Amino acid sequence: MSEDSVTTPPPAVHGAWTPEGETPPPAPAVSEEAIIGVLKTVYDPEIPVDIYELGLIYAVEIADDGAVKVEMTLTTPSCPAAQDLPGQVEEAVRLVPGVTDVKVEVVWDPPWDPSRMSEDARLALNMY
């Protein structure tokens, strides 16, 4: 086996000891890539494309303390999934290591339109 094929595990993160007692280890930093990755696991039940590729996610804000705010919209205000999708987004984001809190806000301005879809979404829905 070559040295290149051996992976070294990352160093363990430990808390520190002070005269007042042990301090907990720092929380892992939350990455935008990790948040986007879990958002891509949430699908509108009527459309076979994830909500990120559909362009339903308008903003992701990550605070230093691990709190995450997601601004999203729906394809229409009367979307049948309106009651379910924000909760699914919240549950998915909570799974990311280091996330301490999640707030999902549904916004209607600007309104969603098909131009917000990624090229992959357009291809999946034959809208090219």
Quick summary:
This protein is of the alpha+beta class and 128 residues long.
What would you say this structure looks like, in words?
A hairpin with a 4-residue loop joins strand 3 (57-62) and strand 4 (67-72). It is elongated, with a radius of gyration of 19 Å. The chain contains four helices and five strands. The protein has a single domain (29-124), classed as Fe-S cluster assembly (FSCA) (GMP Synthetase, Chain A, domain 3, 2-Layer Sandwich). The strands form two sheets. The chain has a three-stranded mixed β-sheet. By secondary structure, the chain is an alpha+beta fold.
Number of strands: 5
Q: Over all CA atoms, what is the radius of gyration?
A: 19 Å
Mean pLDDT: 85
Major sheet strand order: 3-4-5
The percentage helix is 10-25%
Please give the oligomerization state of what you see: single chain
- Total DSSP helices: 4
What CATH architecture do you see? 2-Layer Sandwich
Give the CATH H-level superfamily.
Fe-S cluster assembly (FSCA)
What are the key terms here?
alpha+beta; 128 residues; 5 strands; two-stranded antiparallel sheet; disordered N terminus; three-stranded mixed sheet; GMP Synthetase, Chain A, domain 3
Describe the SSE topology.
Layout: E1 16-18, E2 21-23, H1 32-39, H2 51-54, E3 57-62, E4 67-72, H3 85-94, E5 101-106, H4 119-124
Parallel strand pairs: 4-5
Antiparallel strand pairs: 1-2, 3-4
